[in-house]
Design a protein that fits this description.
Blueprint (H helix, E strand, L loop, with lengths): L1 E10 L2 E11 L4 E5 L6 H8 L7 E5 L6 E4 L11 H5 L4 H19 L6 H19 L5 H11 L16 H15 L3 E5 L7 H13 L3 E5 L3 H7 L2 E6 L2 E5 L3 H36 L6 H13 L28 E10 L2 E11 L4 E6 L5 H9 L5 E6 L5 E4 L13 H6 L10 H7 L16 H13 L5 E5 L7 H13 L3 E5 L3 H4 L5 E6 L2 E6 L2 H7 L5 H15 L12 H39 L2 H4 L2 H32 L1
Parallel strand pairs: 3-7, 3-8, 5-6, 6-7, 12-16, 12-17, 14-15, 15-16
Antiparallel strand pairs: 1-2, 1-4, 8-9, 10-11, 10-13, 17-18
Helix pairs in contact: 3-4, 4-21, 5-6, 9-10, 19-21
Length: 644
């Protein structure tokens, strides 16, 4: 579908890509991976036509449509959310205006028998069918479905985009992109500002509705769920793996071991050759052999190995000052905003050295309880901090408290103490501030860079209770690993508010679940908690809590264990019925997709493109497929609710 041939990109003498070639096929799901600065975002910009390569080219069919979501975007502030999202349907609006104009012309004409009148009728008929095929009568429903899938509520649709934060504005842009349904989706860090619910919706959309996808993401779980081909960019070359990210990691390690063996063998041969040259350089009898060896050296294609920096993996942060045995004790803590209850009866004890996670749906009170612990807001009940507790707090707004006039290096040097000061540049490199980036002024840093810098600064301060609210949002995979290892070795107490299962796994030993206006304690790690709930992700947890809330409204209903035989039988019957509906919907989707592909092939021919009946049939199939997918989504939701 898209062919990349001999792509080379150079910046001021530095080669980013060197003679790179590969092909993107229809329905491909590709993850671009590599170190920061390897060129992932640059590759997406070249695909989007926003940047030109130094050499080589990308062959894109003329009719192919490409949609690009950058990390930063511009939105107008004069439109509502609905109006901004409707920009995705410009073609439909233009076609609608053209039809209105031609219909008006038909109404005004009286030459009913003329050839031009009949031509006009044919044109209106053809455009009407084309309008229906493009979803002209159903696009508003699709627009609302997409916005709500990305976390908006109906009340938001008529609000101006200027009223929303950068993260929500990014969701509007993502909605526009998905609604256009381009042949190729280019996504640069699409999950950065999404919660678990929206990420899950996007995963499902990409799996069932998208065409080809090329994405850059540092969310392991997301790229594993959405891609099945991984292209690694390393040292100007690409390595193409026809597997998802988890399998790629294993294969990459095998490749690197082979690289290292080849590199070591070549280095030995080079050393032997150079030693021979040095030994016999000035002997006339060996001049021919010496010259031959010199020419051999010049012709050798040197093997390069992309070194994995492990220097920071055992980083020791300053020891935490000793606190009392129980840094946080709560009894019957509640928080209300007016008549709105966030949570109540929160009773918990966090021991010294505990590493705990706060999980649950956004708005359930996780950050609110953190603010209670910090003393930033009032509350009901008893909340006591232990002796000598020194809190280190990280949230997105912490990045705004940095001194704009300092450099990145000076910001860290100011708080670093002892031997750690000799490793400042290594620490900065591990968090993507290597080389000249450490000399940047804070005032020129992006929001993500400021967040990373605030994180490093916090981890070097002598505290014994770390409270981190979504700390991994702006970290790449390697930086996450560095942070995770540092927190694992931290001898103080840690409270983590996070949706990142991979990050929490092996780090926390206790989970506090927020939902139904309660805070419930669960001993063990994040996957033990999820397994006990018979769930495989936090999204299912959030659905289950809302279902439980409905059940709580009727206290006199029998529990599952006390249900009568007939009740259980009825529930099993309902479960089988929904499972059958899911299977039928999946079979129908498979059949309709096959029919759609066949019609697309026919419409691609000169004869097919002129066949209006074929266009009408294609439009009907496309509409039926969309409705069936919606039905399938509803059945899946019903099935999950029944199982919960």
């Amino acid at each position: 579908m898209i062919s990349v041939e001999g792509l080379t990109v150079e910046f001021g003498g530095f080669t980013l890509f060197d003679d790179v070639s590969f092909v993107v096929n229809k329905k491909d799901r590709i993850a671009l991976v590599g170190k920061n600065g390897a060129g992932k975002s640059t590759m997406l910009k070249i695909f989007a036509g926003l940047q030109s390569p130094t050499a080589g080219n990308i062959s894109v069919p003329k009719e192919l449509t490409i949609g690009y979501l950058p990390q930063q975007m511009q939105l107008t502030d004069t439109r509502t959310v609905r109006e901004e999202a409707e920009q995705a349907f410009d073609q439909i609006h233009q076609l609608e205006k053209q039809l209105e104009r031609l219909t008006l012309e038909l109404a005004e004409r009286t030459d009913y028998e003329s050839e031009s009148y009949h031509d006009l009728i044919d044109k209106v008929t053809h455009l009407t069918e084309h309008f229906q095929m493009m979803g002209g009568n159903s696009y508003q429903a699709e627009l609302e479905r997409t916005l709500m899938g990305l976390g908006f509520v109906r009340e938001d649709f008529e609000r101006l985009t200027s009223e929303f934060s950068g993260g929500w504005r990014m969701r509007i842009e993502l909605a526009k992109l998905l609604l256009r349904q381009p042949d190729v989706l280019l996504l640069d860090e699409p999950t950065n500002h999404l919660d678990i619910e929206s990420i899950q919706w996007l995963e499902n959309f990409l799996a069932t509705r998208a065409n080809a996808v090329i994405l850059v993401s540092h969310d392991r779980a997301f790229i594993d769920a959405t891609t099945f081909r991984t292209i690694e960019i390393s040292l100007g070359k690409i390595y193409d793996y026809k597997v998802n990210y988890s399998h790629y990691v294993v294969l990459r390690e095998e490749r690197r071991e082979q690289q290292m063996r080849a590199f070591e063998n070549q280095q030995k041969k080079l050393q032997d050759t150079e030693a021979f040259i040095e030994r016999f350089r000035y002997k006339a009898t060996k001049s021919v052999q010496v010259q031959s060896r010199i020419k051999q050296l010049e012709k050798i294609d040197r093997i390069e190995v992309d070194e994995v920096d492990t220097a920071m993996l055992n980083l020791k942060f300053p020891p935490a000052p000793r606190s009392g045995s129980y840094p946080v004790i709560m009894e019957d803590v509640a928080k209300r905003y007016g008549d709105h209850l966030i949570f109540e009866h929160a009773t918990l004890t966090i021991n010294r050295g505990d590493k705990v996670a706060f999980v649950g749906k956004n708005g359930a009170g996780k950050s609110t309880l953190v603010k209670c612990i910090m003393g930033e807001i009032d509350f009901e009940g008893k909340l006591q901090l232990g002796h000598n507790v020194k809190i280190g707090y990280f949230a997105q707004n912490q990045a705004q408290l940095l001194d704009d006039k300092l450099t990145v290096f000076d910001t860290i040097d100011y708080v670093a103490q002892g031997d750690i000061r000799t490793k400042i540049r290594d620490i900065l490199g591990a968090f993507m501030f290597g080389g000249e980036a450490s000399d940047k002024k804070v005032e020129v840093l992006s929001g993500g860079e400021r967040s990373r810098l605030a994180m490093i600064r916090l981890l070097l301060e002598p505290v014994n209770l770390l409270i981190l609210d979504e700390p991994t949002n702006h970290l790449d995979m390697r930086s996450k690993d560095v942070l995770k290892d540092a927190l694992r070795e931290f001898d103080g107490t840690v409270i983590l508010v996070s949706h990142d299962r991979e990050f929490l796994d092996g780090l926390v030993d206790k989970v506090y679940e927020f939902g139904n206006q309660r805070v419930t304690e669960h001993l063990g790690g994040i996957y033990e908690f999820l397994n006990r709930k018979k769930m495989d992700n936090l999204q299912e947890l959030e659905k289950a809590t809302s279902l439980a809330q409905k059940n709580m409204e009727t206290d006199d209903q029998p529990s599952q264990s006390k249900m009568s035989y007939e009740s259980r039988k009825e529930q099993n019957r309902a479960l089988k019925k929904v499972e059958k509906s899911v299977a039928e919907a999946e079979a129908k989707i498979e059949r309709l997709e096959a029919e759609q592909a066949q019609l697309e092939s026919m419409l691609a021919t000169p004869e097919g493109s002129a066949d209006t009946a074929l266009y009408a049939k294609y439009g009907a199939i496309k509409k039926e497929l969309s409705e069936t997918m919606d039905l399938w989504s509803c059945c899946i939701q019903e099935l999950e609710d029944l199982k919960s």
